[in-house]
Specification:
Elements lengths: L2 E8 L5 H9 L2 E7 L5 E6 L4 H4 L6 E6 L4 E11 L6 E8 L6 E10 L3 H4 L3 E4 L3 E6 L8 E4 L8 E3 L9 E2 L6 E6 L8 H27 L1
Parallel strand pairs: 1-4, 2-6, 7-10
Antiparallel strand pairs: 1-3, 2-3, 4-5, 5-6, 7-9, 8-13, 9-12, 11-13
């Protein structure tokens, strides 16, 4: 999985006064859990743009001024209800031998024949929660919808792997195509009708020929 570096400063004080002063200075108070003790630090709000304002999933390398580096994943984020500025971020420290839980985005590939025939594509699960060792965290799930016809769906079972555990039931629908009022017969039905039409045309062509021989 791709990683983003965030440069920060360890916080000496974690009281309300110092937190408010950090936010007024355009910095975000953060905490890293999972280690021997919580690590409190702050970083410029702009440092989080590639982590927060993206559909992609990333791990994070937190570089502190004292030279310490911590690898983590974002666990929670709080936004201001009016301005949408970032108020606080929680991280969870990663260790090579400890599994971690993370939401991984789903990407759809291909064009659904069911949609081409007027069906409605319903993208039910845009992210899947998984548990895995850090080295086995995928960047995203690729789901091929090129064979998805009206009435079909693709469930979690089809994207399972030995590298991680998906924290959803196997029958959880990721994407499906449902019929709609404007839907037409599926491609296979169209082909059958074309073949029947060709046979009828051939029979019609033979009939006049038989009459002319009499």
């Amino acid at each position: 999985m791709k990683s983003i570096t965030i440069k920060g400063s360890e916080r000496e004080s974690v009281g309300k006064k110092s937190t408010k002063a950090l936010r007024n200075a355009g910095k975000v108070p953060c905490v890293v859990y999972g280690g021997e003790s919580p690590l409190h630090f702050s970083a410029d709000e702009m440092s989080f743009k590639d982590l927060v304002y993206t559909p992609n999933a990333h791990t994070v390398v937190i570089e502190l001024e004292n030279g310490e580096k911590v690898t983590a994943v974002m666990q929670d984020i709080q936004f201001h209800p009016v301005t949408d500025s970032i108020l606080h971020v929680d991280f969870y420290q990663l260790f090579e031998d400890k599994p971690v839980t993370m939401d991984i985005p789903v990407r759809l590939e291909g064009n659904s024949p069911g949609v081409r025939n007027g069906g409605r594509l319903l993208f039910r699960k845009r992210k899947l929660a998984i548990r895995a060792l850090p080295a086995n965290l995928p960047d995203f799930f690729n789901v091929d919808i090129s064979k998805l016809r009206i009435g079909d769906n693709i469930a979690v079972e089809s994207v399972k792997s030995d590298d991680f555990t998906i924290l959803h039931p196997d029958n959880t629908v990721i994407v499906q195509v449902k019929t709609s009022r404007t839907a037409i017969a599926d491609v296979e039905d169209d082909e059958e009708e074309t073949e029947e039409g060709a046979e009828a045309a051939a029979e019609g062509a033979e009939a006049p020929a038989a009459e002319s021989n009499e």
